[in-house]
Design a protein that fits this description.
Radius of gyration: 17 Å
Largest sheet: 4 strands, antiparallel
Low-confidence stretches: 91-98
CATH architecture: 2-Layer Sandwich
CATH class: Alpha Beta
Shape: globular
Distance between the termini: 50 Å
Structural class: alpha+beta
Strand order of the largest sheet: 2-3-1-6
CATH superfamily: RRM (RNA recognition motif) domain
Oligomer: single chain
Number of domains: 1
Mean pLDDT: 89
Order of helices and strands: EHEEHEEE
Helix content: 10-25%
Length: 100
């Protein structure tokens, strides 16, 4: 079963290919993603790597937590599940009733 890892403190120059190359040393990489700002397209300094198994994910954490990648010591740990409703920009909810 695939395990998703959170990669923090990424250099703004880091690419998905950089993550693929690095993490493939720990095992089979299912996917990589560097998170970018919607408006500017610039990296937000974090990303995700999905490893094929729990054993490979644990190995990647051991090998690369505090590893210097492109001038920054990255933080690597198992990603937490997204919270319900997380990631939105807020705003008007048409289903919400106003106080009467």
């Amino acid at each position: 079963m695939a395990v998703k890892l959170f990669i923090g403190n990424l250099s703004f120059k880091a690419t998905e290919d950089n993550l693929q190359e690095l993490f493939s040393q720990a095992g089979n990489v299912v996917s990589t993603r560097v998170i970018t700002d919607r408006e500017t397209g610039r990296s937000r300094g974090f990303g995700f790597v999905e490893m094929e198994s729990k054993e490979e994910a644990d190995r990647a954490i051991e090998m690369f937590n505090n590893y210097n990648l492109i001038g920054r010591d990255i933080a690597v740990n198992e990603a937490r599940p997204r919270e319900e409703g997380a990631g939105g920009r807020g705003g008007f909810n048409r289903n919400q009733r106003s106080a009467e």
